[in-house]
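User: quick one, fold this
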Amino acid sequence: MAKSGRYKVKFRRRREGKTDYYKRRIMVMSGKPRLVVRFSNRYVTAQVVVSAPQGDFTVAQASSRELAKKFGWLGGTGNTSAAYLVGLLVGYRALAKGVKLVVLDIGLHRATAGGRLFAVVKGAVDAGLEVPHGEDVLPDDDRVSGEHIAQYASNLKQSNPDLYKARFSKYLAKGLEPENIVKHFEEVKAKIMGKYAKEEKAKAEES
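Assistant:
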């Protein structure tokens, strides 16, 4: 069987669809911290990572898994609203560690304008973190707050109550009526902002 010395086996993480080494090299060579955004079937995770010769170091991290435990979030943990709140969290935490500017690392995700990926960016930017981006890629405030969910739930509740209960069973089981998600989102957002505002005030008083 003929063999060619030109063929090279791709790195394991590239074969597994986890890392685009070409893009990663460009970002690492920039010398800037990376905002790494990843999605699983249920959760959204964001990390601010600094690259060094010894390897990558995580400076700040946030996950939608902690939204319910620490801030009382009752909505979905993988939707656009949760993605925004995760971005807000990681933004505040990065700033607390002295990081002010990051570049977005989307891995192998497809960059879809207005999607969850850019909801994370919007949250980080609203926290005060600088993330280079085009303004047209960010979801609008109504989308982020879950206005589309609230409208759909309200209409469905009137037209088909049984389907409403089935479609939003997880929300209702947690005690959240989906048509009230916008108000709930604003409450959780205020909790996050309030927490880090208090921490900043405490640091300022100590100094």
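User: anything notable?
Assistant: The first strand starts at residue 34 and ends at 39.
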